[in-house]
Every structure is written in structure tokens, then in C-alpha cells.
Amino acid sequence: MRMMPAIRSGVATLVAAACIAAVPVAHAAPSDGDAAREVLRASIDAYAPRMAEVAHALWEQPELGYLETHSSRLLQDELAEAGFEVRAGIAGMPTAFVASAGNGKGPVIALLAEMDALPGMSQAAVPRRAPIAGQDAGQACGHNLFGAGSVAAARAIAQWLRETDRDGEVRVYGTPAEEGGSGKVYLVRAGAFDDVDVVLHWHPGDGNSAAQARTLANISGTFHFTGVASHAAIAPERGRSALDGVEALDFMANMMREHVPQQTRIHYVITDGGDAPNVVPDSAAVYYYVRHPEPEVVRDVFARLQAAAEGAAQGTGTRVAFEQSGGVFSVLPNDTLGRVLDASLRAVGGVGYGADDTRFATALQETLASPPPLAKAAEIGRYSADGQSFASTDVGDVSWAAPTAGIGTATWVPGTAAHSWQAVAASGHAIGAAGAEVAARALALAATRLYEDPALVRGAREEFERRRGADFSYRPLLERAAPPLDYRATDQD
């Protein structure tokens, strides 16, 4: 049985096609050597240079949540060119889309494609801190790679379905505003995944793994305080400081930390605190997140936070209004799908560095504290299905709507943290494109195995139903009626 080697990142340009470098892998997925798998391999080989170009185009023009007009259109065009039927503007989100291919007679396998960037993360693709002049946002979570890699996988799967005359449908869901906007929740609420059999996804990272883990559910939003302005020295008695309301809330929230369940996370940032010390501010705002593995715990703790906000307003003579921006469930792991992904990822192998990549990675690691060896990029991590991640993602709500599993690949230099300038730099470098290619190959390989073995799809559904529970009824943590399409508008400006 032929084993696929590690993917080596391109060294000629940032968007060069990934080359091949021999790296041992543990084992290969079933049927990897047959003719059908060659169709899959050849499709990704042919598209890899274009995938890298697409990823870099999204990196060069980073767009924030719900504002991903160029990014969404580019991904849609790549799928339409490959024969996918595309529907845009779904679930009340102009940049959301679903693209489908296949005959619709077999299992429906969905791939997720994220694309939004983060504010304040501008960075050139160099191994030193170097913001790009005139640009604020940056792909600090690698969603440019996420979107491009998922499109590459979907195109290969669609071609495999056609050339092998297999029954089945592959879909790509373009999912905006993962970073705090909870875009996928609106898709789930609209029933977009009701007829989906399996959902596969991936995420950029500093290593390769198919380990399945629960994440943290969260609720996020902004408390807007309104007071009365006055001269802080001449007539302080006439003023009622909105900032006092914010600070009173923050003080009470910090006191709450001692009296919340273990694993609860509470964090905030003051987004409006006034403009001048000698003016009593009549408006102020603070943006909060509350997280915990259990959605109901998040709901309870946030209700206590809202009560504290009312108390803060009452005590400071101000008024408060809450505007929710996000709310997501924790991810529901699926071991059946996780093992399929693990076998596929091991068959593909990790990322091997060429000489130029090694120089870039070595220089970048000098900015990190205690980084692991660069060889980690070529390794596949140990598989497990019972881990606990302390991140949050709107993939969580999807995982309670349909059997869902994902992988992470080494798009970043080992030791790199998400939401860092180092992640932005690697996401715009050939190292990032090589990691996205690993993801595309692994997702495509896993999908074809699921199409070939209906028992795996049934097993994933049975596990999903068991973990979710017979009495489960979906009650979203996100309660606002419509997506906050302007929640990043100020950041974009």
C-alpha cells in the first residue's frame, strides 16, 4: 500500500505549489492505493498552486466578520468554476453561501469554510514584527487558509464523485464571522444542516492532529451605559458617569470569579471609556465573554452578569442596555468520524520544510518563548476523542445539528499561538499554504472513505444521537433575532 509523504512548503514564492518531501507516516487509510484514490490525488496536485493563490489573495485583503465581500465572492467563484451550484446570502448573511455538487442520491457530506480576519492584527509575511502600513486587520487565525483548503478538498471530492460514478453530494458552507459573530449559529437556526449526514472541518495550527475535543460554550456581548455629561471640576454633582457604571460592573464581575463553577472564563475589554478626563462621560461600553464547557452554565453565569450590570447602573445613577453579539455551544465530539480523519491525516503526512522555510521558521521561533523543534510540523499528534479545549467556536452549534469532526494542520511555525502576529506572518507564507494542502488532502481522503462505507456514516449518526441524548432540544445561546452585520464596521474603518 502506497503511503503519501509529508507535504513540503513551496520555496520559490509565497504562493508556490507545495512540493514533495519524504517523511515516514504511521499507517495509511484503507484503499489509498487504488485507482479512485489516484483521481483524488491528481485533482489536488493540479489545484494546489491555485489553492495557494486563493489563500494568499484572502490574506492580502483581510476582511472582518460579515464584511467578507471579496473573500466570499472569490471562494464562490472557485467552486462555481468547478461545477458547484452556489446559493449566496443564506440565513440573512450576505457573505454566507452554500455550494453543492454530486447527484444527491447518497450521503451529504459538508465541509466548512471560514474566511474572516481579526482587527488590529496587520502583519507582513516576514519573521519579525512588521505591521503593514494602512492596514489594520490580519489573518491571525488563518481563515484565509481555512477557506482555500476546504474549497480544494471539495473540488477534489466532486471530481472523484463524477469520475467514479459514486452516489453522494458534497457541500461547502461559506461561514462568515466566526470571530465573535457566531455566523454558523444563524445557519443552524435556519435549518441549513438538517439534511446533512456528516460535517467535516479543519483549522490552522502549529501541529497536525485529528484529536477530537470538547470546546467551551460562550455568550458574548456589550453593555452600553448611559449617564449625564457635565464639567468634572465645575459641576461634578450634575454628572452621572457612564464610565462609573462600567467600572462598577467590572469590579462585581471580578468578585464573581470566586463564586462560579470550575472552568468558567470571564473576560472583558472597555470599548468606550470617554474622551477627556474633565468631562463626565455620558456614554461608556464594555464588551464581555463568558465561557464554560456546559452551555447551561454559561447561560446561568451570564444571567448573573446581567443582574450585576443592572445593579451597577442603579448604584451609579446611570442606565444600561445589553447588546448580544455572539453565543455558541461547545463542540460535541464524534469518535467514529475522528478515527476516519486520523487515518486519513496519517496517510497524508505532515509538513516538511525546505531550506527557505527553515530559515523563515528559525527566525520566527526566535520571537517565541520555548518553541518546540521544527520537526513537529512533520509529525502527527496522538489521537484521542475525550480532550477539553479552552477555545470557543461556532462549529459547536453545527456539531449538535449533525455528526461533526475536524482536524488541525501545521500551517504555522511550531510554537506559534493563534491570534498572534506570528500566525499572520505564517498564514501569508508558503508554510501556511503547505499546511492547507495537508488539510485538503486529509479531508478529501476521509470523505471518500465515508462515501465508500455507509456503515461508518451510520455509526457516526448513532454516536451523535447517543452523545446528544434522546431528550435534547436545541435552544441557542445566541438569542438575537438577526445577525449583527455591522458589529465589525467600526473596526473596519
Automatic annotation (TrEMBL):
PROSITE patterns registered for this protein in UniProt: PROKAR_LIPOPROTEIN (PS51257)
A Pfam short name: M20_dimer
Signal sequence, start to end: 1-28
SUPFAM superfamilies to which the protein is assigned, alphabetical: Bacterial exopeptidase dimerisation domain (SSF55031), Zn-dependent exopeptidases (SSF53187)
Keyword Calcium belongs to the record: no
Domain Peptidase M20 dimerisation: 219-311
Lyase is among the record's keywords: no
Alphabetical UniProt keywords: Hydrolase, Signal
Stretches assigned to coiled coil: none
UniProt xrefs under InterPro entries: Amidohydrolase (IPR017439), Aminobenzoyl-glu_utiliz_pB (IPR017145), Bact_exopeptidase_dim_dom (IPR036264), Peptidase_M20 (IPR002933), Peptidase_M20/M20A_hydrolases (IPR052030), Peptidase_M20_dimer (IPR011650)
Name the UniProt record assigns to this protein: Amidohydrolase
Native organism: Luteimonas soli
